[in-house]
Hints:
The complex is a heterodimer of chains A (221) and B (221).
Chain A: H1 8-22, H2 24-45, H3 51-70, H4 79-88, H5 91-120, H6 128-156, H7 160-186, H8 190-219
Helix pairs in contact in A: 1-5, 2-3, 2-5, 3-5, 3-6, 3-7, 5-6, 5-8, 6-7, 6-8, 7-8
Chain B: H1 5-23, H2 39-66, H3 69-100, H4 109-129, H5 134-162, H6 178-182, H7 185-220
Helix pairs in contact in B: 1-7, 2-3, 2-5, 2-7, 3-4, 3-5, 3-7, 4-5
Amino acid sequence: MKQPSKNVLWEWMLLEWKLERRNRTTFQGFLLYMFCIVLVAYQVFGSLSEPNTWTALFWIIMLFSSINAASRAFTNEHQGKHLLIHQLIRPGTLILARMLYQMVLNGVLALQGLLLFALFMGLPEGHWPSFMAVLIAGAAAQAALMTFIAAMAAKSGQGMGLSAILGLPLLVPSLMASAKGSLLAWDGHVWPALGHAGLLVGLCSLSLALGYVLFPYLWTD
Amino acid sequence: MMHPLWKWMAVLVMAGVIPLAFLGEVSVQVILHETIRNLYWHVTMWFSMFILLGGAVFSGVTYLRKQDLDWDLKAALLTRVALVFGLIGIATGMIWAQFTWGKLWIKDPQLNGAAVTILAYLAYFVLRNSINDPRKKAEISAVYGIFAFVLMIVLVLVLPRLQPVDSLHPGKGGNPSFGKYDLSNDMRLVFYPAILAWTLIGWWIFELSLRIQRLKNATKA
Lengths: 221, 221
């Protein structure tokens, strides 16, 4: 088998993106999902600039849209394609590529969510750069974790429902750190907020490391 | 049949712990008063739970290395005993909370961590029940077990200490820890053996259910 050994990780991420683009409905589906969910929340909450409620609502919406986005990462692989991928790439590299790809995707979704919130609900006042750090780190941590959960759920053959059950409890640490970090950023406590962003980066690396070590056991049949 | 030494030890230590827990000398505190005796039941449950879960993770790792289904059975049964201990820990904690903090459940990082731990391990059993193929079940649940354990450590043991949040639990949020000066030596003399005894009793329950399950599997085959 041809093994492009140098930048497999990067090439595989590009490949994921190409596949996603070819099958346009999925990516547009995530964007639309985010749009709908924010619009629904807007119907209930109206304009919102009080930091506590804003943060809670924002991260819960991020939670669901990251579960939605990640749970599909492993589902559309029938047996033949699975075999092909198996020969092309090592499982550790595959999970890293998929996690990193989902992290980028979830980052885009987070920015989209922020724009929509700004458009509909309005934004709280606070220290922006540190909030953005928490936002990106939080989105990345959620995505890395959910990708691995999705791999387990897909292997069990139960798909999306199971990945929500497995994912929700395990997402709590990163969700708590994200929410707390955002609140600190709104209050203008720059360094504690950045500390939480660092914690989220740590959680994210923990997921990457665990995924890299454990995924080969899931992947081989 | 001669029982192993550790079973005798469990019985003897427990026989000492129970009367001492009810009648022994305790350091009476404001608010806590005599409820401090709950230390021997509530706190020891969670210590034992973590030790048993550590055993479950070890079994899971061993399964992944040796591919022997017996290790998967051990991991599942240890997790089950640990989950029961965790539930008892929550129940005893709720009783304690009712008498000291005035409510059965309060917003407290430690309680959230406990609730999420329970949810994550309930999800473990949902995951197990949703897969029919025993090999696949063993593989996926071992991987999930390791993943969940690491995240629970972060959630329960690391996060509450990092964040300057106001937990009412000792040793957090500026509250003095029991160990610092509240816990008299008399209490330590009951507390540490109680942890040992509960863990041994948990192990005993696990061993019995393992033998029952092995016999069941043998008669089925």
